[in-house]
Amino acid sequence: MTRTYRQAKRAEAQEGTREKIVRATMALHLERGIATTSYSDVAERSGVGAATVYRHFPTMGSLVEACGAHFWQMIAPPGPERAAAIFAEHSSRPVRIEMLVRELDAFYARGTAPLVSAVRDHDRVAELALFLKEVRSAVAGLVAVALDEEPQTTPVKIVAAVADFTVWLALSGTGVAREERIRLMVAMIDAAISLDKSGAGKSWREGG
Asked: For helices 93-110 and 126-147, what crossing angle results, to 10°?
């Protein structure tokens, strides 16, 4: 057995252990919460020693970041390329707003569990605040494309706030059916647009 082969096998084993630790941590985060998950909890769930967990993740923040990267891939936040494709053939603002709400509804539905955990503990774990900031940035980017506005404009900020995950979660908690939830979110966005007195551009108020 060559040295190169042994090194490759060792690296493969280490990567497998790292993945096992991350998967175990992700499960604990969803079950118990992020801020309350300890190294000993992770070691027990993953079936490795606490020293092994420390070796792969010297800080709890680095472990949270690794889990966040996995969750990001799983929930697939809407990116700019996808947003451009979604709205490419639609110029009517009412149609684009409904498409926006449906896209966000699907995203929030598949990401509910990790997003709830992040919202709950973001004030106790700095990495979660960054994770949520990135999620909201992705949402704002989708909103900007839907409204055909620059990302940092007032209209985009207003609609992104109305369509935030916490608002969606509150509506979901009422028990209304999905289509009714979508109808309500569209109506809320339409109302926000109508009430905006910020002096935004014509494209914001008019639309097809």
From this structure: 160
Amino acid letter, 17: T
The answer to whether residues 172 and 113 touch, using CB atoms and an 8 Å cutoff, is no
CA distance 52 to 7: 18
In the prediction, which pLDDT does 57 show? 95
Judge whether residue 186 has pLDDT over 50: yes
Average pLDDT over residues 164-178: 96
| 205 has pLDDT over 50 | no
Q: What is the 3-state secondary structure (H, E, C) of the chain?
A: CCHHHHHHHHHHHHHHHHHHHHHHHHHHHHHHCCCCCCHHHHHHHHCCCHHHHHHHCCCHHHHHHHHHHHHHHHHCCCCHHHHHHHHCCCCCHHHHHHHHHHHHHHHHHHCHHHHHHHHHHCCCCHHHHHHHHHHHHHHHHHHHHHHCCCCCCHHHHHHHHHCCHHHHHHHHCCCCCHHHHHHHHHHHHHHHHHHCCCCCCHHHHCCC
Tell me the pLDDT tens digit for each residue of 19-51. Answer: 999 999 999 999 999 999 999 999 999 999 999
